[in-house]
Amino acid sequence: MRVKLREPSQLAELERHGKMAALAEAPETANTEKVSEEVESEVTGTFTPVVQLEEVDVSNGEESEDIVFVKRSKLYRFGETMLDKGSGKKQWIERGIGEIKILKHKESQQQRLLMRQEKTMKIIVNALVDPRIVMTQNVGSDRAWVWSCFDYSGGEELIEEVFSLKFANADDAQKFNAAFEISKGQMAELHSTGDEEKAPEESVPESEEAPKSDADPVADLVNGVGDLSTADQ
Q1: Does residue 142 belong to any structural domain of this protein?
Q2: What's the DSSP call for residue 174?
Q3: Which of 71, 72, 76 is nearest to 165 (CA)?
Q4: For residue 43, is it within any domain?
Q5: What is the rounded CA–CA span in Å between residue 92 and residue 113?
Q6: Residue 164: which CATH number?
Q7: 82 lies in a domain?
Q8: Which residues have a Cβ under 8 Å from the Cβ of 130 and sit 6 or more positions away?
Q9: Is-contact 167 73, C-beta < 8 A?
């Protein structure tokens, strides 16, 4: 077996290439060691913020109420659009999608309908469960109900509105109507009980009757209200 010996010039060339490769790898190794040192020397101390923020209890007004019924649905309002304002033209306008709730107050036992938009949480229905409300099934649909009520969702004044609730299926619609009818009955019973508990007005003995006045009470009422007539603008 013959072994071919390399000439001195070839050995020198190989040695030179080996040194260059070592120099090329050196910066990468140095950077790796530097990163390792930085990780090891990372500060892990705990710093207390200068300003301490107190926790604030967020209330949505439903904490004192029990949920009697809840189901996701779509709400419509029968009214004028912004473009038809004042024209008298009314149509069904979608008001939002969310959970319609029947809530019962834990102390007063009063019940109300409440619905919020599921994205903005804005109140779109806030109405007392009035025993006089009649739920009517929408024409051509077994999963929608129409009713009229005094709504307070604006938070400023009661507004008489006509609403329609549309559920995902007929079963959910029937469950809502059944729960609402039960709530109506409970509210009617609550109001009748409250009327019976009111104390009767004390009658004034004939000898202590207030002296009659010559003033006309109707005229006084009109004068107190002011001019109710309307004039052309």
Answers
A1: yes
A2: H
A3: 76
A4: no
A5: 20
A6: 2.30.29.30
A7: yes
A8: 149, 150, 184, 187
A9: yes
Structure token digits, residue 62 = 């439903």
User: Are the C-beta atoms of residues 151 and 125 closer than 8 Å to each other?
Assistant: yes
Let me know how long the chain is.
233
- Write out the two tokens for 160: 């008489």
> Distance (Å, rounded) from C-alpha 67 to C-alpha 127?
15
Q: pLDDT digit string (tens) for 127-181? A: 999 999 999 998 888 999 999 999 999 888 899 999 999 999 999 999 999 999 9
Q: CB within 8 A of 194, min separation 6: which ones?
A: none
Looking at the DSSP assignment, which residues form a beta bridge with residue 149? 161
Number of structural domains (the chain) is 1
Q: Which residues contact 170 (CB under 8 A, 6 or more apart)?
A: 142, 143
The C-alpha atoms of residue 116 and residue 122 are separated, in whole angstroms, by 5
Residue with token string 């260059």: 20
Alpha-carbon span 90 to 229, nearest angstrom? 28
- 81 pLDDT exceeds 60? yes
Which of 84-88, 146-150, 217-221 is predicted least confidently?
Answer: 217-221
Which of 126, 105, 104 lies closest to 115 in space, CA to CA? Answer: 126
Instruction: State how far Cα 56 lies from the chain centre.
Output: 19
* Amino acid letter, 42: E
**Enclosing domain of residue 164:** 65-195
Q: Which bin fits 33, alpha (ψ -120 to 50), beta or left (φ > 0)?
A: alpha
With H, G, I as helix, E, B as strand and everything else as coil, classify residue 8.
Answer: helix
